[in-house]
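seq as requested:
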Amino acid sequence: MPLSPSVISAMKQLLRFTGTDEEFVGSGRYNYQLNCNDRGHQTYFYITREVGEVFAGKKILDVGCGFGGTIKAFSAHGSMATGIEKTVAVKPVLEANCSEEIAGNLINVHYGDASTNMLADQISDKFDLIVLEDVFEHVYELFDLLKNIDAFSNPGCFIYFNIPNRFHPFYIEAEAHRKIRGLSLLPPDLWQSMGCGPGWSIFYRPFEMLDLLLQHFGFRLFRTLKLPSHDFDWAIEQLEGIKERAKSDKLARYYLPQLTEYEFSMRKDHEKLSDAEFRWKYTTQSWRCIYKKDDSVVDQATNVN
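struct tokens:
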């Protein structure tokens, strides 16, 4: 789904790209940004397929809406869409991308931190679906964020989220955001020693912690992404490759103790976890789930398949 020249121009300014539009699109470096609307439509189709509802006429909220691809997709299918975005710098791109929908009052966008009270006076709606793509790992005050999500939710509200699994071998080889080997094994306060700038922190948490927090606010697991075919033998093979490449990595001294601990934990978990539980913890690249605010929903956490 090609973007308009005005959106591409705004993206170039945001990313400080000084070449032509053709060079920007053809470089391959910015495919993630350029595919924002395609990813939004993929999110729409995944959620509606799994939930069995198209959300036409329903209110949806996208927390961390970025360039607006997801709210644009839901709006195109009849939803009343609202976005929250913390990074004000993306505003020119977002508003260029959703210009027609904003002009037609089909989309509302609020700029602020959803884990604080700063948006309480701006958003009075209750929502039927709340989307949080690649959000939870960026939020330190996770309890406060979920408290606000709870306040924004209608009875029966669905929550969709995905977060990178820091235990997956691909992310140990190259952390999802900074692409540095071993980074995902370290606590955030050590990231700067690995070459990350001040203030850059990602707060990876065990899935079990997130599940307990969601249950605390009345959300129950409704659906999970199908498990990968990769098993323990595959994970060990990937780990051996990481250990071999670490021998020539000048940053290895920072993460080798954690890598050893990781291997020990993986081998112990292989002995005590079921195959499905092991694959969910170690070989699922991103945890992608749908929860529902409804105490009558059966918790399927032990039936991952």
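Residues 297-305 have pLDDT under 50 and may be disordered.
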